[in-house]
Structures are given as structure tokens and as C-alpha cells.
Write a structure and sequence with these properties.
Chain lengths: 253, 73
């Protein structure tokens, strides 16, 4: 019975992740792709001699910016949808007096912060032509380390808050947990090595716009996921007959 | 918004029952790893490390990798 609930939530999480991925894909295509193209154009300015694998053209730009982009964003959506659904199974009923729908949106907001925003503030997204080919191993390692650290610390802060709640009350327990999270993340920011490989003449406005687009994509993905998955989870978990909430959700199941 | 809580017919509390960890664990182990493998192929394959030779995977998801914030070449 419980196992079936987990399975049902997992399936819904992956579907909601796919749908949120479609929304994020629209943002990525219309907001992000123009910046990617401009950055690639900068890369091919003759003065900028940077031997690069793009010159070999395995796939055309029009394929990369449509089918390739879609593959990446949708797989990302499904994968994080599944992981978030599993985390949701654990969070459900354990994070406070919240409905299934509110729990989903809270989890989604925390995931946006822990999985993306916190690592992004230290190692922000970079457009093509920013970043040296020979440091890819180090940069990838640092990025995934920051992501892992942020997620583990967010889980730790949540458990700490739960622990403190009976003594300090929900408000101050939450404030303490968030402060502890910020303090440790701040130390990680301070001690982990910086990465700055922006070419000297790369347009600052383009870099700024690209990074804003990257943030917009993630915000769309996680907001969409939180709302869609929350609705699906609410319908699945609310045991009351459909008539009791007919006004809110007609023909639930 | 909120009608489900505000309905006068609501006799049960709004807080849902918890799912025991042992019901979640098998799904979390199997699907968690599967999802992480998917993320690896979108985010890092043929960049820092390679399971397959060549650059096809990297080039195919190239734009997504940049726009999703992963380090890419």
C-alpha cells in the first residue's frame, strides 16, 4: 500500500518534471538561445584564437539549438522530477502542518535554491567561449562538489530545524537552521577556489543576460514542477471523495 | 487555492500521513541512481570524463549544458 503510493508519486514526479521541462525548454529556446548564438559568434572572431571542437561541427547549430537542447532540458526535468518526488515521499507529513500541495511547492522552492541558486552564486553558468578547455575537469569537479555540498547542507539544516523546533518554536528553529546553512555555505564560498575564465573582451552585458536566462530557465522549471506535482500529489493523497472538493478540482480521478 | 482545506466537510486534519522509510528506500535506491545517471549524461559525459568515446553526446546536449549551468568545455 505504502510502496504503491511511493510508486504513484514517483511516476507523477517524473511526468510533472517532463511537463515543467517543456516550460523550461520554451524559456531556454526563446530567452537563452539568442545569447548562446551571440557568444558563439564572439568565439569565431578571428582575433580570438581558441582551438575549439565546435569547428569540427558534429551536429549543426540548428540541431543543437532545437532537438539537442530539448533532449538535455527534458531529460534534466524528468531526472530531477524523479529525485524530487522521492524526496517528497520522505518530506510528506514530516516538515510541518502543510497540505500535500504546499509541501510540494516548498520542496520545489528549496530544491531550486539548494540544487541551483547556491552553486550558481559561486560557479555561475557560462556561455560558449567562456571557459578554458583544459580546466574542464577541475571546473566540473568544483561545480558538482558545490552542488552536493549545498544539497547535503540543506538536508542537514532541515533536520536541525526539526530538532530545534520543540525547544525554540518553529519560527526561531527555522531562523537558526537557515542561519547555520548560510554560515557554512558562506565558508564554502570563501574557501573553495574561484573560477574566472571570462576572455578579456567578452561583452559584459551578454554574460549578464546569459546568466539571467539561465536563472529564468531554472526558476521556470522548479516553479512549474512545484505547482504541477503539487496538484497531482494532492489529488492522489487527499482521501476525501471527489464531491467534497469538487469546487476545487472537478473530476479528480 | 485552499478550498480543500477550507471545505466544511473536512474532518481529517490537513497534515498527510507519513510514508515509512522502508517503503521509500527500494524506489529511492533504484530510481535515484537511474536519475543520477541521466543527469550525468546531460551534465558531464564527454566533458570532464567519458564513458563513450568521441564527442557526440557532448555536442548533442551542448546548448542544454550551457543553459542549465553545467561547466562545458
Amino acid at each position: 500500500m505504502n510502496s504503491a503510493t511511493v510508486r504513484n508519486l514517483l511516476v507523477r514526479g517524473m511526468l510533472a518534471g517532463l511537463a515543467a521541462g517543456v516550460l523550461a525548454l520554451l524559456v531556454a529556446y526563446f530567452l537563452g538561445e539568442p545569447d548562446v548564438d551571440k557568444a558563439i559568434a564572439f568565439e569565431h572572431v578571428p582575433a580570438h584564437t581558441h582551438a575549439h571542437e565546435h569547428d569540427t561541427e558534429v551536429f549543426s547549430r540548428s540541431l543543437q539549438s532545437t532537438a539537442g537542447l530539448a533532449t538535455g532540458v527534458l531529460v534534466y526535468g524528468v531526472a530531477f522530477g524523479g529525485i524530487a518526488a522521492l524526496a517528497y515521499c520522505y518530506a510528506l507529513g514530516r516538515v510541518g502542518r502543510l497540505t500535500p500541495r504546499a509541501t510540494a511547492l516548498l520542496l520545489s522552492g528549496c530544491a531550486l535554491l539548494a540544487v541551483y541558486v547556491v552553486p550558481f552564486l559561486k560557479y555561475p553558468a557560462n556561455p560558449p567561449s567562456v571557459g578554458e578547455a583544459d580546466t574542464i575537469g577541475r571546473r566540473t569537479g568544483l561545480y558538482f562538489l558545490m552542488m552536493l555540498l549545498s544539497v547535503l547542507l540543506a538536508i542537514g539544516a532541515t533536520l536541525l530545524g526539526k530538532r530545534l523546533a520543540p525547544r525554540l518554536g518553529t519560527w526561531w528553529a527555522t531562523v537558526t537552521a537557515v542561519t547555520a546553512f548560510a554560515a557554512v555555505i558562506g565558508m564554502a564560498y570563501a574557501f573553495l577556489p574561484a573560477v574566472n575564465e571570462v576572455p578579456s573582451h567578452f561583452p559584459a552585458t551578454l554574460l549578464w543576460r546569459f546568466r539571467l536566462s539561465a536563472l529564468a530557465i531554472q526558476s521556470t522549471l522548479w516553479a512549474g514542477f512545484g505547482l504541477l506535482f503539487g496538484e497531482l500529489a494532492e489529488r492522489l493523497l487527499d482521501p476525501r471523495p471527489a464531491a467534497a472538493r469538487a469546487r476545487a478540482v472537478p473530476a479528480a480521478r | 487555492m485552499g478550498q480543500t482545506v477550507a471545505q466544511p466537510t473536512a474532518t481529517t486534519p490537513a497534515v498527510p500521513a507519513t510514508l515509512p522509510l522502508r517503503a521509500i528506500a527500494p524506489w529511492a535506491v533504484f530510481f535515484g541512481i537511474l536519475m543520477l545517471v541521466l543527469l550525468y549524461f546531460v551534465g558531464a559525459e564527454q566533458g570532464a570524463t567519458s564513458v563513450f568515446n568521441g564527442t557526440d553526446v557532448h555536442e548533442w546536449v551542448h546548448d542544454a549544458r550551457h543553459l542549465l549551468g553545467f561547466p562545458c568545455h
